[in-house]
Automatic annotation (TrEMBL):
Name of the protein in question: Gluconokinase
Gene Ontology terms, MF aspect: ATP binding; gluconokinase activity
Reaction it catalyzes: D-gluconate + ATP = 6-phospho-D-gluconate + ADP + H(+)
TM regions (residue ranges): none
GO cellular component: cytoplasm
Record's keyword annotation contains Zinc-finger: no
CDD domains referenced in this protein's UniProt entry, alphabetically: GntK
Amino acid sequence: MIVVVMGVSGSGKSTVGQMLADRLGCGFSDADSFHSAANIEKMRRGEALNDSDRAPWLAAIREAIVARRVAGRHHVFACSALRSRYRDVLGEHDGDVVFVYLKGAPEVIGERLASRAGHFFDPALLQSQFDTLEEPRDALIIDIRETPEAIVDTLLHKLAACPGGALLTPISPAGPARVQ
């Protein structure tokens, strides 16, 4: 199973994604690491990315997803995947790719971004992400007001009900899950 934790910047994708991967005992990739130097510099300058900026980035993430699937490996990706067509590229309609949408109010996410240090994303771009966002219909939708630990517990329960989710066997609510 491939899990893509999606949402706007500051929604908790990296934190929740890494925690989920740890609990599942599988790999984790942050889509930020797939950005070109030019894209990173553009965001540092406070400029929003456009579709042509995102196309090679999405293709690289898709290649990584396919490689994990071909190898038969479970994997968690943190990726904004803001538009429906971006999710299509990443494999939304593939049976073993599950999207998890971390949904939160702009005010809550804005506060998170204001307190985040050392990230290239300019918090002034948050509104442009909400403007771009096409909320998914076929994703697991999670309210981000819970703690990351509670979100991961909820996700483990919901993922178990997905096709292929029976392969995920949590050892305990607080302990790691076991991937068969």
